[in-house]
Amino acid sequence: MPVNASVEMIKCCEQFLTDDDIDCNHMRLDGSRVMLKKNSITNCTLIYPNAYPLNRKGVCNVNITLYDSNQCNIMEFIENIPFDTTIKPQDIMFLFKKSFLNIDKQFRLCESKDEDPADLCEPVNCHMKYRGSKSWFDPIKRQCVPIPVCDNSKPDSSNIVYDPYSNTCITLANDISIKDIDSVLYETQDLRPINKTKKSYQSNIRCHHGKMDEINKLCICHDGWKSAQNLSFPIVSTVPIHMCTIQINNNIISKYLPIMKKMNSTNWVSF
Predict the structure, then answer these.
(1) What is the pLDDT of residues 48-59, one digit of tens each?
(2) C-alpha distance across the termini of the chain, in Å
């Protein structure tokens, strides 16, 4: 007599920088149920609906239950399933070949687990990856960190607000200082020195086929590309805004020309 096999997630814990740096609250797996015939083997699948499955490591507790035709529980047991999707150099070559006809997929080895290996190591969408537990991308640490809760319940705290640029709670009651004025001038008059290291400015705007205008903090799209929304000023938010993603010229030759050039090169992947 066939039985139904049901698999459900109990808890999933993801490990970060150290063995003690663990979060067991943000991962959610969708379970499934299959019919199991006598003396047969089947696969039970748990789906992780997330856009960032790579560079994740941890362990999941899952519950497996067998039911008879009357839906009565006849057997139940728990399994620990470890997972590790850390990208290695050999994985980059495999992923590159697999996505050969998709010119938007350019895989790289990244320094941080919160840099997207499928998007030239650009920051991930922290909101999406960690379901709200780590929603701000720290440009210095190059990783997603929690957003602080600004408590306005205490006396004289009604002017405390969240600053998405520094990821801190600040008060609006303080007077404007000379340092604040200099900071505004620094950002608007292009007085910044040339810095060849990674930029520390926290921007929520992603220029896919373009470059950032460091004065206006908006994207200048490359020829043949445009944005879905025409912004005239930056939107203050921790949620990424994607620009320069719509191709204007659909000429098939120009689209696959970069791939043809890659075929002639022996250095397929740059580490």
Answers:
(1) 999 999 999 999
(2) 56
Structural domain boundaries enclosing 32: 3-84
Q: Which residues on adjacent β-strands are paired with residue 219?
A: 212
Instruction: Give which of 56, 23, 50 is closest to 133, Cα–Cα.
Output: 23
Contact 212, 149 (CB under 8 A): no
Tell which of 50, 65, 84 closes a domain: 84
- Dihedral (Cα; 175, 179, 184, 187), 10-degree rounding: -150
Give 47's DSSP letter.
Answer: B
Could you tell me the pTM of the whole model? 0.67
Mean per-residue pLDDT, 232-246? 77
Q: Is residue 40 part of a domain?
A: yes
Q: How far is it, in rounded angstroms, from Cα 144 to Cα 138?
A: 6
Q: How far apart are CA 112 and CA 152, in angstroms?
A: 34
How far is the CA of 217 from the CAs of 100, 149, 202, in angstroms? 33, 27, 10
Report how far residue 168's alpha carbon sits from residue 170's, in angstroms, rounded to the nearest whole number.
6
